[in-house]
Every structure is written in structure tokens, then in C-alpha cells.
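sanity check this fold:
=====
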Amino acid sequence: MNDSPVDLGTIAGYLVLGLFLIFVFVAIVRAVRIVPQATALVIERLGRYSRTLEPGLHLLIPFVDRVRAGVDLREQVVSFPPQPVITSDNLVVSIDTVIYFQVIDPKSAVYEIANYLLGIEQITVTTLRNVIGSMDLEQTLTSRDQINGQLRGVLDEATGRWGIRVNRVELKSIDPPQSIQGSMEMQMRAERDRRAAILTAEGVKQSQILTAEGDKQGAILRAEGSAQAAILTAEGEARAILQVFDAVHRGDPDPKLLAYQYLQMLPKIANSQANKVWIIPSELTGALSQFTKGFAGAMEAPAEGAEPVRPPGWSPLAGELPPTALTDPAVALAEARRESQAATADATSAGTLSGFPFDPDAEAGQKP
């Protein structure tokens, strides 16, 4: 019975010691703070702002200092849900925005505003409605950079006192009404069809121009080739005529030789398939008489020691003609025409061998 009070005191002592150890452990835990990188802790002492803890190991006064809030110092990305906005031409568009911001003053972010994310969202919506309300739909769709710049300026100015810096503001999507989208698609399709038609017409035009130019150049080249060929052919024929004409004049043929050649050509004329009736020309009698005289003269033998009788106009031909000197074709043709006209005039004045006047324009086979 006397040992009971001692046992109770011992147990009470152990309980007090245990509670003290627990208090000491909790105090040590609350006194030691390790702040991670890119994080700041706002500390209050007895309910009043004391300091801001930066990354590292820190010691606090237990039950006197407490952590009010932890603030992330990294750049944050917040995407707000689409907001309906009315343009100046009374069209409702849905705009989805994305904001990039960073907390640069943890104390202001904690004590100047209760929820800075909600504040940024509401300022973004109101500013967006003010900016879009002064633009029509076409300007809204084509002025993203201008809208982003205005939003960033307003948000940076409003959130500066909250210890927040807005780095970028982007319009993720601008969705007009479905009816307007259909009209815009039809307009774009019509514009693209118009551009396609213009490009097709330009291509056809250029093709036709190039084809016409090619045909023109081809016709010019063909005409030039035909002209050169005709010139060369005429020059060749003129030179051949001049050479034959020169050889004939140098040989000085007599009437008997010409009559013989005339008689040789008569069968060829008669053999032509186009001839239905063969009429003997009036010159045939003169040719036959010249041919008979030639044979009669050839039958007379020359006296011994006398020179052989040669027909009038005889001249050596084989190996004795001087080399032919060709002149310009135009000059030679003009000279040949003059000689032909002179011969025609002489024949007209003298008459033919049959006694009928010579008519150069008479048709072939027509009697005088």
C-alpha cells in the first residue's frame, strides 16, 4: 500500500517527459523550413507580415512564425474558356485566350489581391470586349497581333501592383457564328474560283500568243526558205541558159542543123498524150528544104588539093571553144531578152519560108 503513490508519480513523470519530447520535436519541425527552388514562402509573425523566404534552409520561431502562403515564381500558362464578344458590326464571336504571366513580388501577390488568377481572367475578358467592340469581324480576324498587343499592355498595367508581370497574351481561336462561317466559306470559294479562272485565262492567252508567235516565225522562215530556193533555182536556170546560149552562139549553127533539130522534136510533140490532133506547121516545108540542101551539098566531092566545102556559118566546136565566162544572171537575161526581141522583129519583117507573115502570139497549131 505504501508503494502506490510512488508508482503514480513515476508514471506521471514519464508522461510529462513524453509530452515534452513531443513538444520539442514538433517545435523543431515547425522551426526548420526548407524552401525549394523557384518557390517563395510568405512568413507572418504573430499575424503580421514578417519576411519572404527564398529557396534554401531557414529557421523559424515555433508557434510565433507561420507560413502564410507559398508562391510559385515560375512562368505560368493559363488558358481561359471561350468568351462571347460582340463586334462593332453586331456579330457575336467566341474568343479563346491564353496568358503567360510570372509572379515577381510574392508579398503583393498574396496581400494585394485575394485570387490573382481570377483577377487576370476578369481583366482579360473586359479588356477583350472593349478592344473587339471597336472592330468589325474582318478586322478582328486579321488583327490578332494588334489585339494581343493591346491586351498585354492593359493587363501588364493592371497586374503590376499585384506583383505579376504579363509576358504574352495570345488569341488561341476566334470562332464566328456558323451562319457567318458558311458565308465566309462561300465567299472564299468564289474568290478562289475567280482567281483560278483568271489564271486559266492568262495561261490560255499566253499559250495562244506563243502559238501565234511560233506560227508567224515558222511562216517567215518557210517563206524565206522558199524565196532562197526560188532565187537559187532561177540563178541556176539562168546560168544554164546563158551557158547554152553562149555555146550556141560560139558554135554559129547553120540553118541545116537547126532544121535537123526541128525534125527531131516533131515526133516528141506527136507522142504527147495531150495531143488529139497533130497539125503540121507551116515551117516544116522550110525545114525540109534546108535539110535537103544540106544533104545535096554534102554529096558534092571537093576537088583534089582544094579545101573542103563548108556550109555557111561553120566554126570549129570540139575543143576549140574558149572557156565560158558567166556574167551576172540579171544582166545576161536582159541581154537575152533584147536579142530575142530583135530576132522576133527581124522574123516579122522578113516573113517565114512559106511566105506567110510571122505571128508570135498565134496559138500552137493554128493556121494563118
Observations:
- The chain has three domains: 7-72, 76-176, 254-350.
- Confidence is low (pLDDT under 50) at residues 298-302, 312-326, 351-368.
- The domain at 76-176 is CATH 3.30.479.30 (Tetrahydropterin Synthase; Chain A).
- The two ends are 193 Å apart (CA to CA).
